[in-house]
Amino acid sequence: MTRSPALRVRMISAALAVFATGLGGLVSGRLPGQDPLQGSGPVIRLSYRALQPGEPVLVFLESDGTVRSASVTFLGRTAELRPAPGGGSVFAFLGIDLQTEPGPASMTIKVHKPGGLVENIRKDLVVVERKFPSTKLQFKPEYVTPPASMQERIKREAELVALAMSVVTPEWLGEGPFAAPHDAATWENFGQRRLNNSVLQSLHTGLDIRVPFGEPIRASNAGAVVMASSLYFGGKTVIIDHGLGVFSTYGHMSELLVKRGETVKKGQTVGLCGSTGRSTGPHLHWSFKIFDTRVDPEAMLRLPLGPT
Length: 308
Ligand SMILES: [Zn+2]
Prior knowledge:
By secondary structure, the chain is mainly beta. It has helices at 141-144, 148-164, 297-300; strands at 7-11, 16-20, 26-30, 43-48, 55-62, 69-74, 77-80, 82-83, 89-96, 103-112, 118-127, 134-137, 193-196, 199-203, 207-209, 216-218, 223-231, 235-243, 246-253, 255-256, 263-264, 269-272, 284-290, 293-295. It contains 3 helices and 24 strands. The strands form 6 sheets. Strands 15, 17, 18, 19, 21, 23 and 24 form a 7-stranded antiparallel beta sheet that branches.
């Protein structure tokens, strides 16, 4: 994809006019048969940092008033487009999971118009390989090979976490762009392949922040608390539903300061930093899911979600 500002390229396969800006991934297309230079017809705009594993993608449809509803399907997942902040358009969040195989991936936007008319707009995209770091970690043996007595608990907790993030709130609950939960530096370890005691055991699906013990951890955005529990691996953990299938998670805390079911504002303290669960020292484990895709928290911070 071109990154030259204001450069327009006609995509023959999709019969769409596409342009990209220097923002790192802004693609617009109009419905086939419409002149992109004229101001009529729905306009599709994609916003992303990169089309790579672990990256979120925003899909905007600027309505000309003829759109009844719309949905987008990408990498096997379908999301409904819902009113975007600021009005005038509908939008959806999608994610390219951390373990997505690079290669061609088409996106289909289905637009329902009056009179039962349905327009299918296809965009042919390519997921580009991303290299992730790897590391060796030394944990207490019971966290690498948990005792048999803990297997039930671990399984149950995994199910509860999955359940908490399985319900999609059909509206955006956020207040402007996402913000970091603390301003300390990170370990830049999203997607890290982990050899625990020399056994390739896990992928690091979040980002670790070097927060000192006891400091407040703030909600990245407004939403509803869907979990505030002490987990075997994650330690004291809060999960916030931001709507539209987006969930943020804060782990290893020493104290939980919110309860399940509570609504939180952006920047509200949800807990205090700690080292509970499978942790080698005080830090915050911060992660995001968009539906079932695991995406990079740093990329979430860059999504254009309007003024705060
Ligand atoms: Zn972590």
